[in-house]
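Key result, reporting period 2: structure in, sequence out.
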């Protein structure tokens, strides 16, 4: 047999074996390994089409391509977040060892431009003596006139930022009329060729001292994360300027005093403590210390007791004052320094019983708060990474993607989970209705975060799925699935401050050897969840054993299919034959109180389309299908049809 015939036979056998045996993922793994561009991932599919590969083989390649692109995007996101955090750490380190303000500001502008990927980044400062603002640092600028701009207060986009103390962004500078255009500013911007500009304020307390900009020479939409990142760099720049001002004032005061030697001796202990805490904090960061290690180190240096507290446990008024001013605030006999990151309040460092604090010691406490915020951000990133890994393992179990028991056990063991123990699969969902899509997405993220934390503490797994969250938790000997469902509903509801409904499966065992049981158990948990919501028990938890006859109905021991077929079978069959959407239409029609106008809004179609579909339903089910008795049966059949349908991923 010729070589071509052998290869053709091998390819035919591989394609007949299905996507799992084609090795479709191999070219994409190679692309991932060498960090290829996203365009390169189309090549294996195009090559397969050119070779005349089977539809199954091409479908497997398409599936593998999508997975590989998803992995690539996740890796790029992680690298970007790592780069951002690293840049913040480096900038904070530069600030902690501040020697030259211009060098620090130049580094901030350079890192901001690099991380945001803009053509130009620049920083302007206000000149109180002349009553205007001027360019202090630029990066990527090529126009001399632009680099030497001096602007009157309130002019241009920077003037708008300075007036409102809020970030502003424009996609097209010359078409934006929200701010005052002047000939001088527009000429400088035109010389530089800038189009899209983002500006964030440099704040010292309540005062704007300048603006940090990032700009492109083409139209561009800046994302929320990029605005927050530039705001973080602006906060560091403001801290650098504030520090430089303090150092300048200190030098000026020392130069003007006749007893310079005495002042130096008096302050030498404070300076030594500041140097000591700088060294200790740098060492803590390098060896991965925690926030309580930072508090302990500062306690020793300041000769007092420093504690890290959550934001809810600190006095609210001084905490908000510290957050707004960016400095430690004296409260009775204590000093409070807010721990913030990008405007988010993470907690506070509290120096207790030390009302007379030296300014340098105050600055030491503030620096410690900044280091604490960076450590908390690093810990959060690590926790989110672990949550993603737990979710990926549970996703693989639900989708039965990895059937090697040994590999499943090894992955679970690294997460301190035991797949050989008895588990319960729980489906959890929020019951509140968010006013818009962004708030709903935020609520789902809170639920997933709370479920991931619960899973980690219980040595289980959690993943976001089907608009809610699925958990795989071990069942303690002597406990039952219903009790675990109720406990989980209470714990998640308390964590997210909203009602959470939880449906639980019957106990399942030997998951490593039989991962397909997880999928079936999840479907059972979802049916219990829907039953709770239908029965008006939102915010509660239950398993099938709690429902009596309804539990048997949910488990499939009754003729559900026969009832559904007798009641709405003609509509279901019509949809399957014609590819129409009549079942969803009558479901929405009943949900909307039998109002065609509200139904068309729910389905996003014209009201005439709703009327035509309802006429078709009447021809299939009879003109009396909306009578009370028939409507009750049809609604029950619709619910059972939805509950008995396979879970959609």
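The corresponding designed sequence is given below.
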């Amino acid at each position: 047999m010729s070589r071509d015939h052998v290869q053709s036979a091998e390819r035919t056998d591989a394609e007949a074996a299905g996507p799992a045996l084609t090795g479709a993922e191999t070219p994409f793994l190679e692309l991932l390994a060498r960090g290829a561009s996203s365009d390169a991932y189309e090549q294996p599919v195009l090559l397969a089409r050119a070779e005349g590969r089977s539809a199954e083989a091409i479908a497997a390649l398409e599936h593998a391509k999508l997975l590989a692109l998803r992995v690539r995007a996740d890796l790029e996101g992680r690298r970007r977040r790592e780069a951002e955090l690293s840049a913040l750490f480096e900038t904070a380190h530069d600030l902690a060892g501040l020697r030259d303000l211009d060098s620090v500001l130049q580094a901030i502008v350079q890192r901001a431009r690099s991380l945001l990927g803009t053509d130009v980044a620049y920083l302007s400062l206000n000149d109180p003596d002349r009553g205007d603002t001027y360019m202090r640092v630029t990066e990527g600028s090529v126009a001399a006139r632009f680099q030497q701009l001096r602007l009157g207060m309130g002019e241009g986009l920077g003037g708008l930022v300075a007036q409102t103390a809020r970030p502003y962004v424009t996609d097209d500078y010359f078409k934006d009329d929200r701010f005052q255009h002047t000939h001088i500013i527009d000429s400088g911007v035109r010389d530089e060729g800038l189009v899209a500009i983002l500006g964030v304020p440099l704040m010292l307390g309540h005062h704007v001292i300048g603006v940090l900009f990032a700009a492109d020479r083409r139209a561009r939409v800046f994302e929320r994360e990029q605005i927050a990142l530039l705001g973080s760099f602006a906060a560091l720049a403001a801290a650098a300027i504030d520090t430089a001002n303090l150092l300048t004032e200190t030098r000026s005061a020392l130069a003007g005093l006749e007893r310079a030697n005495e002042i130096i001796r008096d302050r030498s202990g404070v300076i030594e403590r500041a140097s000591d805490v700088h060294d200790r904090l740098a060492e803590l960061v390098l060896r991965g210390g925690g926030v309580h290690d930072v508090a302990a180190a500062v306690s020793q240096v300041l000769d007092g007791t420093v504690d890290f507290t959550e934001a809810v446990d600190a006095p609210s008024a001084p905490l908000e004052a510290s957050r707004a001013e960016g400095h430690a605030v004296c409260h009775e006999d204590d000093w409070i320094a807010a721990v913030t990151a990008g405007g988010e309040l993470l907690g506070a460092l509290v120096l207790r019983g030390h009302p007379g604090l030296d300014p340098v010691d105050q600055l030491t406490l503030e620096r410690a708060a900044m280091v604490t915020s960076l450590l908390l951000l690093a810990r959060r990133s690590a926790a989110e990474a672990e949550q993603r890994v737990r979710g990926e393992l549970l996703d693989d179990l639900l989708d039965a993607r990895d059937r090697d028991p040994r590999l499943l056990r090894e992955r679970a063991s690294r997460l301190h989970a035991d797949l050989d123990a008895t588990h319960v699969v729980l489906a959890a969902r929020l019951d509140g209705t968010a006013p818009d899509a962004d708030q709903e997405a935020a609520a789902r993220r809170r639920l997933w975060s709370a479920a991931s934390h619960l899973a980690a503490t219980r040595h289980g797994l959690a993943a976001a799925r089907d608009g809610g969250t699925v958990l795989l938790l071990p069942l303690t000997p002597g406990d039952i699935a219903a009790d675990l469902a109720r406990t989980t509903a209470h714990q998640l509801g308390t964590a997210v401050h909203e009602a959470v409904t939880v449906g639980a499966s019957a106990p399942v065992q030997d998951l490593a050897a039989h991962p397909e049981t997880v999928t079936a158990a999840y479907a059972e948990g979802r049916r219990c969840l829907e039953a709770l919501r239908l029965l008006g028990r939102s915010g509660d938890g239950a398993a099938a054993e709690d429902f009596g006859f309804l539990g048997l109905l949910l488990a499939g021991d009754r003729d559900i299919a026969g009832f559904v077929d007798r009641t709405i079978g003609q509509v279901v069959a019509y949809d399957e034959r014609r590819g129409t959407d009549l079942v969803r239409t009558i479901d929405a029609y009943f949900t909307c109180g039998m109002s065609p106008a509200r139904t068309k809004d729910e389905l996003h179609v014209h009201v005439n389309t709703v009327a035509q579909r309802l006429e078709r339903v009447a021809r299939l089910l009879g003109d009396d299908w909306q009578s009370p008795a028939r409507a009750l049966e049809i609604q029950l059949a619709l619910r059972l049809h939805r509950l008995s349908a396979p879970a959609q991923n």
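The longest strand covers residues 207-216. The radius of gyration is 32 Å. This case is discussed further under Risks and Mitigation.
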